[in-house]
Design goal:
alpha/beta, 5 strands, globular
Length: about 130
């Protein structure tokens, strides 16, 4: 069995429905041809650590939820495909899903799938290259 090498970054609005976030996460994985078993975990911003949708996806996929501070995510801004001034104004970093995936993937990691959006959530996928 191959070691997991992908990081799934997720972002969502407060009160996002768990099913919406799960459908988005599943879509990104399916579109990339990646199984949940290929993931090292679910990654997001610490402001969403206790968000029911984040917890639900983590539990459904049986993966750890790891959250980073806005300051840590902001360090990924030069690597983002879709930086957002609006996101920065809301949470203090220029992206959550892409930045969280890249933070988890490490300095040599790269995005496999840039930010994909639903009505109230975002998802991105990165591959680790350690």
């Amino acid at each position: 069995m191959a070691q997991p090498v992908y990081a799934l970054g997720l972002g969502c609005e407060r009160g996002c429905e768990p099913l919406e976030l799960l459908k988005l996460a599943t879509k990104v994985l399916t579109d990339a041809g990646i199984a949940a078993s290929d993931l090292t975990g679910i990654y997001s911003i610490d402001q969403r650590r206790h968000e029911p949708a984040m917890i639900a996806v983590s539990e459904k996929l049986a993966l750890p939820l790891v959250c980073y501070s806005a300051a840590v995510l902001e360090k990924q801004t030069p690597r983002l495909l879709n930086p957002s001034k609006a996101v920065f104004a809301l949470v203090g970093c220029h992206g959550v899903a892409e930045a969280a995936a890249l933070s988890a993937a490490g300095p040599r990691g790269s995005l496999v799938a840039g930010k994909t959006k639903s009505a109230h959530a975002t998802a991105a996928l990165a591959i680790t290259k350690r």
